[in-house]
Amino acid sequence: MTRFHLPVFLAVAMLIGACAQSTSREQLSWEGSPQPIEPGALHPAAAPPPGSLIVLLPKPNGSIGGVVVRSEGGRDVLLNTAYAAARTEGGGQAKAFTYDRAAVKEDFGATLAALPGRPATFLLYFLEGKDQLTHDSEGEVARIFAEIANRPDPEISVIGHTDAVGTMNYNDHLSVQRAERVRDDLIQRGIPADRIEVSGRGKREPLVPTAEGVSEPKNRRVEISVR
Amino acid sequence: MNKALLFQRDILLLGALALVSALIAMPVHAAEAGRVKVSKGTVYIERGGKQLPAPVGAAVEVRDTVVTGVDGSVGITFHDNSLLSAGPNSELVVEKFVFDSTTHAGEFDTHLKKGTLAVVSGKIVKQSPEAMRVRTPAAIMGVRGTEFVIKVDESAAK
Fold first, then answer.
1. CB atoms within 10 A of CB B155
2. Distance from CA of A210 to the nearest CA of B (A)
3. Complex ipTM more than 0.85, yes or no
């Protein structure tokens, strides 16, 4: 039996060694650490770190999220209203205030102008049991494809879906067929094939949940996501 | 405890430890975390001590530092659909990016050493608020799903 103890001992020794190594690496800590900022990383020990300013912006749809600002040795400041701002100067407590809306454009115009296009998702619908677009989707396809083609370096995912009519196997095939049909059309519009990822989810992910065997136009679709 | 039980325990322990050791010993793979979608003026990526050009389509990896010149700005889309853009004279380090495209669980840490940054959070934050953190020399921002801008202001340090 003792012969099993030696490998265990060795493994434990290796593990302890590995742990010691990993804890010695510099790590960014957020929870439970009183001093998350590495002191004097960029500046001489006597000089405080450069101040920073953060301004919360409303999303395009008008909703507001939130950001917690934690500064060295200071209390957390929660920003959760449009143009709520916090400034930290040389470390210490972050001061909350409201930023001038016009100044955002002035101070961050070039930065905001460089934001990439927002990731988007488009749906195209198909005729029952076919890889052929519905009349309505046929009319939209040009606009959608143009929007995708306009993006710099588009990364595209095309996912096919079906309704609940037919077997699992049949629908798996049909969903892939639909997705491949859309991919081929995208390639025809000049989008490189290696930018497009294709998959089929069969009847597993209905948009509108139905009983088995129910024909539902909204579930016969291809989802194109682009970023 | 009888012999058979001890034996069983040792084998289990050994297996678990072997697995843990193997995981720790694995080389740290710097995978693509995002891609440059907007690149204006002077923009480059510092990776492993080298300066690489950062045109549209360039991959951004964990531990990369993205640098812009006086005339430069850059926009990056990450795999969880987070968007980041840096204005002129900026230096941004991608410290950590982990994202599970199935569960949307992940962690995203960046460090703005200087300059300006605009942030639009993505799927990681939607799944777990504050799993995205942006650090500046003086503060850490925990992101709860939002859009915001940051400036590291050299002149503010007196």
1. 7
2. 24
3. no
